[in-house]
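Hi team,

As requested, here is the filled-out complex form for the iron/sulfur cluster run. I kept the field names the same as last time so the parser does not choke. Let me know if anything looks off before we queue the next batch.

— J.
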Amino acid sequence: MSDRVDLKVGFQCNNFCRFCVQGDKRQLLAAKPAAALRRLLEDGRREGANALVVTGGEPALHKDILEIVRAARALGYSLIQIQSNGRAFLLRGLLQAPHRRGRPNEFGPSLHGPGARIHDWLTGAPGAFVQTVAGIKTLKKLGQRVITNSVITKANYRELPDLARLLVALGVEQFQLAFMHLSGRAGENKSWLAARKSVIEPYVKAGSRRGDQGGPDRHDGGHSLLLHVRL
Ligand code: SF4
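And here is what came back:
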């Protein structure tokens, strides 16, 4: 048993990413019932997990998200990460939970380009870049730990150094780059969207260098900003 539970709360989402692995699942299961999710949280704790990553779809759209986070806290999960597309207006409710104990303590927003042109096109959501950047700024102002996710595609690999520069400027603790998983919508689009690993390598390395120069990870005793690349 892992010490971390990945809780998929349902597949509804307000983005339409061209690399989404979930295909048409959003029509099949928008949101799992809170009672079923609570049982999964209880099972995880019984088996020794103390960290939780809440994913979807877009977990902030789940109508019972605050109740789910509160239940996880009450059950004793010490780390609760919300993996979200990070659009600002969605984070507000989570951050305004009346007691700090009822809030998540880590966020994993996704940013796929250094500007609106690429990010909004990749996510199929006009305005998403501005909202996500605003969301990250809000999180940092509130002292939240932020670990971002970016998917590498043919459309954005040349921009990885600029994206790294932006993420460093936004003060995120860590950024993760991931190659496309080739299923769902990503599988349908792979012939024209998936970039060759040998082609992206120098850009990933340049992004990594930018991350290494990025300054201290304030929550980890002064280490450099970390870059994780999953290829
Ligand atoms: S990749 Fe994530 S944010 Fe994008 S459409 Fe799929 S579930 Fe939504």
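Two things worth flagging: Residues 13, 15-17, 20, 22, 56-58, 85, 123 surround iron/sulfur cluster (CB under 6 Å). The mean pLDDT is 88.

Thanks,
J.
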